[in-house]
Amino acid sequence: MGMLISNEPDFMIHGVLQYQMFGQDFWITTTTISMWIVTVIILLVGVLANRALKNAGDVPGTFQNALEYAYEMLQKMADSILAGNAKRFVNYIGTIFLFILFCNLSGLLGLRAPTADYGVTFLLGMVTFFIVNYQGIKNRKMRHFTSLFEPTPILFPINLIGELANPLSISLRLFANLLSGVIIMGLWYGMMPLLVNIGIPAALHIYCDLFSGCIQTYVFCMLTMVYINDKME
Fold it and tell me: Is the model's pTM score more than 0.85?
């Protein structure tokens, strides 16, 4: 019946092209290529959105309505957490929202989701970490540091660990959920007969890529705004 079974499911990151720079070996991996494709898609959406808004007539089209609806939902999400400070951060939140969402959904295109690579999610978490601490120093001055000794100096180690754990927790949450989807799909395609690899995996893709991808994008952005709001007076 032509059923093929592989005992070695493939869900690892693979090197595609090796090059040298400054005497060191570097690799262009499947994650790199996926990020390039996602970046191009986001740029194309941005160009099309810019054209649609510039050429908008008296009656907005379907694409313009979708753009305006998406922006309104993003604005409401930012307002619900940041309130009066939402306008200052809505551009950043919107940027990481689109990037993470498109990365999470890239599995539907047969790509390896870049967010299933901890190197990607860790950098996203560190960017959030620096923004949060910058806002804390800017708005709270020395209290940003003295608050680590509250309500008692004995809790300083716990408070410090809590601050340092924030970027790790949001990056690991996003990474682990996306990696689990990659592992599930890799096990299915690698170990199941060819006959059941037609049609049936669509339901798994809906959950692992679409549902989980959207939820994790929302969670990452919401936690980012919560951390930022915690440093605002």
Answer: no
